[in-house]
Every structure is written in C-alpha cells, then in structure tokens.
Amino acid sequence: MQDTIYEKPKPIRDREYRYDSFPNGNVLCAKKKNRLPAMGWNSWNAFGSGNTEQLTKDMADALVALQLDRLGYRYVVLDDGCYLSERVDGRLSNEPVKFPGGFRALADYIHARGLKFGMYNDIGTNLCAGAAVGTCGHEMTDARSYVDWGVDFLKVDNCYYLWDNATFSDAANAKYVYAPNIRSIRVEGEDFSAAYSAVESGVLTGRVARINEYYVTDIGTFDGTGPGPAPVGEQSSELEFRVTVGKAGVYSLYVTYATGQEIGVGSWLQVAVGRGEQSHVFYDDFLPSTETTESFCESSAIPVTLEAGENCLRFMNHRRQENTLDSYATLLEALNAAKPDHDILLSICEWGKTQPQNWGYKVGDSWRILNDITFRVGADGDPGTGAWTDDYTPSVTSQYNKAVIMDEFAGPDKGWNDPDMLMVGMNGLTDVMCKTHFTMWCMMNAPLMLGLDLRRIQIGDKFWKILANRELIALNQDALGVQAKRVFCSLAPERPDSSYITDNDRVDILAKPLADGSVAISFINVSEETKGACHVTVERLVQMLGHKMANRDAFERAAQYRVTDLWTGECTMNATGTFEVRSLAACDNVTIRVTPIGL
Predict the structure, then answer these.
(1) Which CATH architecture has domain 485-597?
(2) HSE-up of 80 (CA within 13 Å, CB side)?
(3) CA angle, 338 as apex, 334 and 343 as ends, to 5°?
C-alpha cells in the first residue's frame, strides 16, 4: 500500500463499499466485533488545543489516584493540538514545546500506569485546528507511526475533507456529493427508443430530492451534522425510472442534465440498474460541467445492460457516504498492514454528517452522531462551559434527542452511537443536569469519555460520585450490549422509539435489558420544569424489548420484582408489574434496576 493524494475520489473497490450493501451486516477490513463502549478521558473539552504533555501525564495520574481506572476509565486520548503544524520528511511529529518528550515516551508513561494511549487525526488534509497533517493520502505512513508509538485508540475527524463540503473545506466540494439536476433521460437500443421526463415519469425516493418546476434537484444524502433531519429512515434520495424493453441487451442511455457545485446540485452521477446488493452500477463519475445549474445539455451515451421486461433505472449520488466509508476503511487497512494483530479502537468523528449510523459499523467501533457537544471548551484553569439545551448541537439534549432513537443501529456486533464527550464538571450545568447527562449516556451505551480537568475533583465529591457510580457504569458496560430503547415519550405516545422529538418539554422512559435477565428503567425529565407522575408496565417492556431480553419468560412471568434505585441505593419489592414515579424535578431522572424474583 502506497501513500497517494488523489485528484478525485477513488473508484469504489467492490460491492461491500456500496450504499446498497450498507444494511447487510458485513464488517470490512477485519474489524473486530464485541467491544463494549470505550471509557476514558479526552483532552478536547478540558483544554482544547492547549493540552500539553505535562497536563496529559497529570490526567493519567489523576485517573489512577481517583480510582477511576478501576471502574473502566482507561483510555487517555490526545485530541487536536498535539502535532507539529506540518509534516517532517512526510511524517507526523510532536509539537516540540507542548510535547517535548515525544509520543512514544508519553505512551510508555501512560501504559506504565495500566492505562491505554489514544491519539487524534483527520481523514482530510488538515486537522480541525488547522495543522496540515491530516491523514488523507498518508494513511500507510501514519499507521506505522501510530503502531510505533503504541497507540491503542484513534479518534479520526472530518475537517478539510476533499470529497465533501466538510468543515473548513471548500464549499464547492458539494459537487462530489450531489447529482446534477436532471430534466429527462433517453434510452436507445435495437428496435427501441424512448424518452422519459424526470418530472412526469420519474419517481423520487427518500426525503431529499425534490421537483423544481421542470427538473429534479437535491439528489443526494442529508447532511447530518446538525439536528435537522431525523436519524431514522431513508437518508438519501434517488430518481428512478421504470424502463420496459422487449429483449435483454446493452442499451445507450442519454441524460439531460445541468451541473453545479453547491448544496443540492453537483456534478457526480451514479447510474444503476436494479435494487439491493444485486444492482449493477454502470456509471460513477463526473459529468462534464455546464455553464449554470439550469444550462441543460445531453450527456454522451452511457451503456447500460437491461433485462427483458421492466427494469429499475436509478440515478443517484451516494458518494457522500461511500467516500467517507472508504476513507476510514483506508486508514483501518493501513493499521492492519502495519500491525496485523493490532487492537486499536477506531472512533469515527465525522459529526454524523454522512449518516454513519448506516455504515459506521463496517469499520468503526463508534461513530459521532452530531457536531460537537460544546464549542466553549476549557483551558488550564478554565473548566469550559456546557449547556442543557441549544438550538444547534452544543448541548446535552441536542445530542440525546438524536441518540435516544438510534438504538437499532448499535450493538456488540456493530459498534456504538457516540453523542460526544461528557460535560460533567463543566460550567453551565447544574449538579442535577450532570447526573441526568451521565445517566443518559450510560443507558444509551455511549462511549464514556471524560471531558473535564481531573485535578478539579476528589474522591467522594459531587462530580466524582456521578462519574464513579458503579451501578450506572455497569449498565453502560453490560455484556448483553443493548442500547436502551425509549418505551415512552409524553410527546410521542404512539411511536416513542422512532419519533424524532426536539421539543424538550417532555418526559421520556428508557428501558435497557441486561445480561442477568433484569431490566434497567430510567424516567427522565428532559424539561426544565417539574413534571408529574409517569409509569411503565411489564407488558409494555416485554412488548417493546422482549426479543432482546436475556430471559423474557422469567421477566414476564415473575411473581414479583426487586427494584433498586441506582442513584440512592434504595431497594424495594414490586408485585404489581407497574413501575412509576410520582414526580420528576426539572432535568432530573430516576433510574432503577428491575430484577425478576420467582415464578
């Protein structure tokens, strides 16, 4: 494998990297399965680009001194700001003032304390803070460096990505991820000729594409960076035609199109016949540019093979997802080549832009679902600021509202939805908010990456008690590996598990089956006002989660249940099969473990 900078996205190497193969469950590049969510500390929320070697050592020492390592917090991860701003002889290098001892020595220091060492890079040309050391085109070289440095965890960002209008990239890169506007197509063959209007004969799939008077536009994939679109359901659109021919053979396809390089209209077109993994892609490249987005012209002939009878002819651009998958896969392949038996975790951090819940499991151990949880990071002496709610992504509830309905995308055989680092201990959140924030992340099997300066807490203080709650951590690390499902939402009583709700004036009930046959239930007041009683029954739990339970019959038929409050430790018995809370304070939660007793 040789490092290469490409002038345009590489051809898709095989079907497994195609959009139609995303649902098949197959992992790529020998990705390991059955890892539980990562736990540790990341430097970004605490120090931003101001992290240093000494601060990192202090945090490693603190994890041990606070006994957090014994609870599973083992990864110590350097985020952006640790490299020299340019490569040295083509290689990554440590920033000499902030990290004078180098990364191998720092890894040794961390490993000597029984911890694991993590680093950061980017699939683009630059890191988000600007350093021109992105891994794009340097995957093999960088993989050797990471192996040599003893890296155990890689967080890989998405800034300056060449094939998308990602953060700090050229906005014109939208040309790669949207199809051209399409007005009509023409199909020619022996004894056959037919023309089809996109508006009159075409069928639009998904939620993205739309008709703009006399042509179809917005053929592509939702940008999931922000909180707009729901994460459940079709994320891409296509334009389809049903073309019926009398006999099988090769036909000439002509497309009347207009290109652009802006959100909604691009220059890259994919043409396929058939659906699913049996489909065949006949064209996957740029079409020649037109003067404007409405200067329509007809393409050269595109040969397509049609079967006798009706054919589904698809016009699309799934390259936003396919390119990104390929870029992360390229890095994983390089790590495999550098050390075939490596155990490095790959944390995909492309902010949910390309809907990684659809494909991230193929190469990643976790995938970020949105942009950052806070943009007001800390510094040495400044804890930074978080928020409970926000109209964009930087808040607990913005991240939670998406992640809470993404449970079907996660699991030990896949990986984990990542709503970003914990903000426990930052300014802007009350103690109650911090407690509920931690509960949410544990119930949702999110990676538990601490984002505070650990020198600010002591064993037994209020933040330590939250982060060191063994019972909550046990939910996150439970061997069954089932992300909690929302079984009740006061604003979506009919479809609580799949309705995307951004109005925080509500109460949710989450339920999580556990490996010992018990079920964790969390009553969560998402609002900033006190809420009244709510309840859930055994029947409801079995209806929504029975197929995921370790022992459905034992839970459903139990004579009574032991109910343990995981925050207070209080233990009671329940013989009714109805579990309720009388009221919930603002932003508060009650989280219980329900264990069946007897039959």
Answers:
(1) Sandwich (2.60)
(2) 20
(3) 90
pLDDT at 7: 81
User: Is residue 3 predicted with pLDDT exceeding 80?
Assistant: no
pTM for the full predicted model? 0.97
- Burial code of 494-511, b = ≥16 C-beta within 10 A, e = fewer? eebbbebbeebebbbbbb
Rg (CA), the chain: 26
For 28-81, write each residue's pLDDT tens digit: 999 999 999 999 999 999 999 999 999 999 999 999 999 999 999 999 999 999
pLDDT band at 358 (very low <50, low <70, confident <90, very high): very high
DSSP structure string for 154-207: EEEE-TT-TTS--TTS-GGGGGGTBPPEEEEEEEEETTEEEEEEHHHH-EEESS
Query: Does 39-162+323-476 match 178-316 in CATH topology?
Result: no
- C-alpha 20/C-alpha 314 separation (Å) is 12
Q: Confidence class of residue 5 from pLDDT cuts 50, 70 and 90?
A: low
Q: Give CA–CA dist 247/309, Å, rounded.
A: 7
Q: Which residues contact 144 (CB under 8 A, 6 or more apart)?
A: 338
Tell me the per-residue pLDDT of 78-125, one tens digit each, with 9 for 90 and over.
Answer: 999 999 999 999 999 999 999 999 999 999 999 999 999 999 999 999
pLDDT digit string, tens, across residues 410-424: 999 999 999 999 999
Q: What ranges do the domains of the chain cover?
A: 39-162+323-476, 178-316, 485-597
Long-range contacts of 546-553 (CB under 8 A, 24+ apart): 548/480, 548/482, 548/485, 548/513, 549/513, 549/517, 549/519, 550/480, 550/513, 550/514, 550/515, 550/516, 550/517, 551/517, 551/596
Inter-residue contact 355 to 407 (CB < 8 Å):
no
**Whether the predicted pLDDT of 4 surpasses 80:** no
> For 178-316, which CATH superfamily applies?
Galactose-binding domain-like (2.60.120.260)
Q: Provide the CA 53 distance to its chain's centre, in angstroms.
A: 29
SS3 at position 108: helix
39-162+323-476 in CATH: which number? 3.20.20.70
Distance CA 409, CA 414 (A): 8
